[in-house]
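User: Predict structure, ligand zinc ion.
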Amino acid sequence: MRWRHWYEAARLAGCPPAAARPAMMELLTEWVGPCPHCGQSNSFEIDRTAGRRQAWIEDCWVCCRPIQVAVGFDAHGGLDVVLAPAQ
Ligand SMILES: [Zn+2]
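Assistant: Predicted complex:
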């Protein structure tokens, strides 16, 4: 992942990541995962500035059923995304 590469390079250089990473990649990261209802791939935009723990509900673009999206970041900025059926 390009963003991860930038982050690691900045970390190794001793720079604060916020100052080193490109502005265009600062706000949103695209993450693709399977819908828990129909299994089709969905693309989610994850806002890295919105906190290390995030959760929201988004409708599947294929079957339109609601998906509970839970996002966490590890200490290195890696993404941990969990998709579950929402009612
Ligand atoms: Zn679906």
